[in-house]
Structure formats: C-alpha cells, structure tokens
Design a protein that fits this description.
By secondary structure, the chain is of the alpha+beta class. The chain contains three helices and 13 strands. Keywords: Transcription, Transcription antitermination, Transcription regulation, Transcription termination.
Length: about 180
C-alpha cells in the first residue's frame, strides 16, 4: 500500500472527469474493470442525476440533469491496482481527496444522493402564496404582472389576476411561468 491508497474498505469515492464525459468515463471504466478483472475491487459506478421540470414552448418536459457535472462516484476498495485502473481511465482527471489520497465520502452523503436520485416525480418549489405579486415570465401573457389568487400544488398550476384592457382577468398558469416580484 502506497501513500495514495490507504485501505478504507469498500467505500464510495468521487472522481473528477472532464465535464460532459461523465457517461463516457462510466462506460470506459466498466469495460476496464471487466478486462482487468477488478470486479472484486471496483463494484459500482454512479453518474448522479436528478429529474427536473422544464418548460419548453409552453409544454412541461421532465429532463434529467447531472447533479454534479464533471463528477462521478465509484464504490471500490482502494488498492494500488484499483487506484491505477480508475486514475488511468481516459478523461478521468483524478480522485477527490487530500493530496493524491482518495477520500471516501460519508455513508450519509451517499444515502442522501441516492434518495435525491430516486425521486421519480420532481417537486415544484413554490415560493409564492395567495396575494403574492408575480410577473409572468413565459407564454402569451409574458411580462404582465398580477396577484396570485389560487395555488394548486398537486397539479403545479396557479391562478393569477392580471389587469388587461382595463379590467382584472384571472389567468391559469404553470408554476414555472411565473416569478415572484
């Protein structure tokens, strides 16, 4: 065991990759593990992603985004050989750790991340309440301002009273179409 490989048992480590190469690194690493018989030292590779809701052309889309672009997680036993296999995978720039020593992340961090990744339905973060002044940021009523009159968290919808043609008109919108003023 050299100084970069303190034996910490089977733990999760974070590897830094070139951004945009996370899947590529995970794929190459899986192949290297097989071809170099490292299955007993390197167990799991994870590219942490989460589902987010985006609005495109007025339509809701669920997209998967990387939680930590440029990083992947590897569950492994760090030995000189396993360290070398991971470190020399194309597009890996190094382990996250102190100096050259990979530092495992805590079980709690791993559990929290796995929980975050397991969220099937993305949650809406709603920071408005009834009577909140809001600006509409998307759709046919873009740039109009109004007051929130109704919030339907389950559906992700909100009713806003906007002033148009000299009178108050209720407009139903998606949460993602408004911003709090």
């Amino acid at each position: 065991m050299s100084k970069q490989t303190l034996n910490q048992g089977r733990r999760w480590y974070v590897i830094h990759t070139y951004s945009g190469y996370e899947e590529n690194v995970a794929h190459n690493l899986k192949q290297r593990i097989e071809s170099m018989d490292m299955e007993d030292k390197i167990f799991n590779i994870l590219v942490p992603t989460e589902k987010k809701i985006r609005i495109k052309n007025g339509k809701r889309k669920i997209v998967e985004e990387k939680i930590f672009p440029g990083y992947i997680m590897v569950e492994m036993l760090v030995t000189d050989a396993s360290w070398y296999v991971v470190r020399n995978t194309p597009n890996v720039t190094g382990f996250i750790g102190i100096g050259t020593t990979p530092t495992p992340i805590s079980e709690k961090e791993v559990k929290d991340l796995q929980k975050r990744m397991g969220v099937e339905e993305p949650k809406f973060k709603i920071d408005v309440s009834i009577d909140s002044p809001v600006r509409i940021v998307d759709g046919p009523f873009k740039n109009l301002e109004g007051k929130v009159t109704n919030i339907d968290e389950a559906k992700g919808k909100i009713k806003v009273l906007v002033s148009m043609f000299g009178r108050e008109t209720p407009v139903e919108l998606d949460f993602l179409q408004i911003k709090k003023i």
